[in-house]
Amino acid sequence: MQQLPFHTVTIYGPGLLGGSVALAIRDRMPDCELRLWARREQPLQLARTLGIKHTYTDAREAAQGAELIIFATPIGAFEELARLILPAISKTALVTDVGSVKAYVHRTTGALLTERGRRFIGSHPMAGAETQGLENATPTLLQGATVALTNPHGVPAEEEERLAQFWQILGGRTYSMQPAHHDRAVARISHMPHIMAGMAARNAMPGDVPLHDLQRLAASGFRDTTRVCAGAAGMWADILWENDVAIREVLTNCVNDLHRLIFLLEDQDKAGVLRWLTGARETRETILNTSEDEAND
């Protein structure tokens, strides 16, 4: 029988990612006491029908005695939630999160908990979908996903290893990073593509092209390119705000690259346009092939 890294896990936030983590624990760690907290009773009713027995609307009660606490609410709520449940967090417990920005989280929530003698290690499962809510959660969402771990507060290595083991049991592949490196990387391979999807959708409408023509001609290319911008706008507004420095840097690069393409077209430089497109394809293949090779290691 596999030894459990944690015997009691509390998840705050029954959304898509928090719910998927909960369902994965239900299936892969059936002997673990799984707790789920939400502000409202409605999602907890659904959680109980999905086999999650321990549900709470009292945040402190949910934390009492938990060995692992996972923040899966919007990132902007982490610090307030940490302050609220702090008296109930055991000094032997480990706190983590599933947010897609890490430097901000460590600067706020992580620092708060560390200063008060608690242990915090950041986590970011690279998994998600444009759908939201517990009703769209799936126990396989984490299967094969990279989970970045960030530990700038000096939590002992054995605790980070225990957290890594937890994510690996749920199907993830863990990867340790510094928070600033994490944020610069996800700005390029996650946050910027989301913004570009939004740009493609926003700029499909202006002009004198009739709407019915756009609707008739929109096919898989438009759907695939713009799919991710169908996600929760409020959550993404928080992400852009909390990772603004790295995102502004990469967007400046994007603007400069678009200007370069415009100049190539204005100069009727077909060879230059071909090089631009070829470079895009080669960069994509380099990044994705490396990811696939590492996934198979």
Any chance you could write out the topology, listing elements then pairs?
Elements: E1 8-12, H1 16-28, E2 33-37, H2 41-49, E3 54-56, H3 59-63, E4 68-71, H4 78-85, E5 94-97, H5 103-115, E6 119-120, E7 122-125, E8 146-150, H6 157-169, E9 173-177, H7 179-202, H8 211-217, H9 220-226, H10 233-242, H11 244-266, H12 270-295
Parallel strand pairs: 1-2, 1-4, 2-3, 4-5, 5-6, 8-9
Antiparallel strand pairs: 7-8
Helix pairs in contact: 4-5, 7-11
Describe the structure.
The protein is of the alpha/beta class and 297 residues long. The chain has helices at 16-28, 41-49, 59-63, 78-85, 103-115, 157-169, 179-202, 211-217, 220-226, 233-242, 244-266, 270-295; strands at residues 8-12, 33-37, 54-56, 68-71, 94-97, 119-120, 122-125, 146-150, 173-177. It has two domains: 8-177, 3-Layer(aba) Sandwich (Rossmann fold); 182-266, 6-phosphogluconate dehydrogenase C-terminal fold (Orthogonal Bundle). It is 53% helix and 12% strand. Strand 1 (8-12), helix 1 and strand 2 (33-37) form a beta-alpha-beta unit.
